[in-house]
Amino acid sequence: MSPNRTDLILPPGAHYLQGSQACAEGAITAGCRVYAGYPITPATEIMEHAAHRLPQVGGRFIQMEDEIGSASALLGASWAGAKAMTATSSPGFSLMQEVISFAIMTETPLVIVDVQRPGPGQGYITTSQEDVMQARWGHHGEGSIIALSPASVQDMFDFTLEAFNLSERWRTPVLLMAEETVAHMRERLVVPSRDEIQIVNRTRPKDLGIAPESYLPYGHAEVPPMAVWGEGYAVNHVSLVHHTDGNVTRYNSSVHLENVSRIHRKIEDHVDEIARIETRWLEGCRHLLVCYGSVSRTGVEAVLEAREQRNIPLAFIRLKTLWPFPERQLRAIVPEVDTIFVPEMNLGMMKHPITEALRDRCRRVVSIPSLGSLHSPELILDRICEELA
Amino acid sequence: MKKHPMLKYLKEEAPAGPRLPLIMCPGCGAGQVLNYALHAVDTLIREDGLRKEDFVFISGVGCSSRLASHYLNFDSGWTLHGRALAVATGALLANPGLKVIVLTGDGDAAAIGGNHFIHACRRNLNMTILCINNGLYGMTGGQVAPTTPIGRTTTTTPYGNVEEEFDLCRLAQTAGAAYVARWSTAHPHQTIKTIIKGIRKKGTAFVEILSQCPVHLKTAPAEMFRDLKKNTVPLKKAGKSEAKGRIPVGVFCDIDKPDWVTRYQEIIGRLERVESTHE
Amino acid sequence: MNKLHVNPAYCKGCLICVEACPTKAITPCKSINAKGYTLPEEDDMRRCTGCMLCETVCPDFAIAIETDEDQGG
Hints:
The structure holds 3 protein chains of 3 kinds. Chain A is α/β, with parallel strands linked by helices. Chain A is 37% helix and 20% strand. Chain A folds into 3 domains: 6-196, Rossmann fold (3-Layer(aba) Sandwich), CATH 3.40.50.970; 205-269, no CATH class; 277-388, Rossmann fold, CATH 3.40.50.920. Chain A has helices spanning 19-30, 44-53, 67-79, 90-95, 97-106, 132-137, 153-170, 180-184, 253-268, 271-274, 295-310, 327-333, 351-358, 377-388, and strands spanning 13-18, 32-37, 60-63, 83-89, 110-116, 146-148, 173-179, 186-191, 236-237, 277-280, 287-292, 314-319, 321-323, 339-344, 364-369. In chain A, strand 6, helix 7 and strand 7 (173-179) form a beta-alpha-beta unit. Chain B is an alpha/beta fold. Chain B contains 9 helices and 8 strands. In chain B, helix 2 links the parallel strand 1 and strand 2 (75-78). The N and C termini of chain B lie far apart (67 Å). Chain C has helices at 16-20, 53-57, and strands at residues 3-6, 26-28, 40-42, 63-66. Chains in contact: A-B, B-C. Chains A and B meet through strand 2, helix 3, helix 5 and strand 9 of A and strand 2, helix 3, helix 5 and helix 9 of B. Strand 9 of chain A pairs parallel with strand 2 (75-78) of chain B, so a sheet runs across the interface.
């Protein structure tokens, strides 16, 4: 019904954009054509840019009455065949947790951006990484989730596009755990040429030659093919524990275990395919700095300074994916080290899975917290030197 | 044995086993509303040339919403408590061609879902809302709802309800819905006709159906069915003395105004024309 | 003469059909079935006009009227 103006997506080449804008553009390039949102600092710019651009490319934008409505609208849009997104900040992220839980159980592709700000409560409107645990554990119940951590305007474009691809490939909600820093910064963004951009779309039963009569909405494969409303598959989306055919009243504990375990395994068994990390200077290192998000920017500066000016053999690891946590990947590459430093814009959250993964490879794990503002390279370096003195 | 004519629209047998009978208590009005809705859909398929795949049923959580759990041989979504209207909103933005029927209850729509309810009516999105109003929370055991009459004893108002109830139709009308009506399960033909009209209507159609909960109100279904007929009065007689103590039923409003997607499409069209003049 | 069909797998004995029948052609059964439900049964189907109200108001899709036409008459 609407023209799909793929000719009007952000053209290849260099652009100078705010992270928020890059995020919305990444979504549009990925094929997002429905955005439902609610204003909240510091995420509002993503929504405003989407409001401006979506009708240009033939998509539809709506400002909903609250965050719960926004996230709920994504469910309907996705089931009706659209790629859909919303962006919020930490308080709104809390409100969306029931919908996220529901999306996990119904295996609904959608993307939620959390531009983190400090909490708890209204907290403040500057930057933070205080929701990184909530991303994994904030939804009630079992089930796993994918969460990415962008560190630049380029990442805001690339990772949003990747978030859509991951959500379609794995039939899951995907979280983009941004921060105010990266949403509000302005940098150069380079959009690759059309044929370099990979777009992933959900597998539908008709793609696999499965007829409506034989379709099992939660069956056929580890990642079930997803029927879209309106195509004659009479698909019933349900979040109560279900059989592969969508039956919800023949409950027994083995159906329950199988249903929920599969959803959990769907993500956790494929960490190697999903999670990405960046590593530098692991060869011959004696200490390690692990960071994510915008802290990677100043973190790498601190590591460079430590290596070049203070002769500290410090390696650098950046988690591009927070969840599923790349424990096996880390254990495969991290040698015996003395101290692992984890600078975070919280009082120490990702330090826990990092410690769990590498406890036997190090003497100790040291948190370097900063609340409400980005660590300067000096802050990180001073703390490292203090600890190693 | 001859089967009920509407069974063709339900999933009786499925790989994991039979799905019927409906999980509803004996005599619950929810099944009747489904029956009426399916009669309406059947008419539209025969008369308007609509197809089964054009329809999608979206529900929230509760006895009413259970209708769309796994029984329907249609596309459906059994969603979150109170959020069916928001889900329906998203679906229409993705595919405005879908004939969206929302199955909700009084608690689902007017308590937890109240915010989405008034905004859906205000936006005049092209959907038909069937609100099955039994004046209480049934699934969870009979608690008070925003539609429970003042003074009534429920599990959470053991000494009598101290609150007045919503008039859901007046609420929908004030919020801006284009087509608002109230009937009861004891008005089968009127309900069916109204649902047909609602689906044909461009914009938000809100149909409240007063329904019996025999278990929590501890009254036999046939008696409650009889009482619903007795205790309702046509809207046009609402001001008269015979209407005292009776609930008015009928069509509250029927307005023609553009629906949300139509208005938004004008923007898309306008941008297309601007874009082409720049070529 | 029209025939009444009640599916005992679906009928819950709510008897709304009996209440709705304008000619009282159907009536509650004298005994309860294995599930404890009182199903409707034919009283005098010569009174049945084929209005189908019983089918329309049934909450469980458990009842059907087979008309002369259905029977090939």
